[in-house]
Write a structure and sequence with these properties.
The protein is mainly α. It has one helix spanning 3-27.
Length: 51
């Protein structure tokens, strides 16, 4: 196997892997993350500001 043939084989393998990865990524279903919400716990009253 000469260098030219090995380079062509490597290019074909590279393209095949790239196409497979692209197809897998396109088929994969994406799940949207749940929206982040802030907790509504009231802050404790500051005794110095009460009066």
């Amino acid at each position: 196997m000469d260098g030219k043939m090995l380079a062509r084989l490597g290019a074909v393998v590279f393209v095949a892997v790239a196409i497979t990865a692209t197809a897998t990524e396109m088929i994969r279903k994406r799940v949207a993350p749940a929206p982040w919400t802030r907790s509504t716990v009231a802050a404790p009253a500051d005794p110095l500001r009460l009066g």
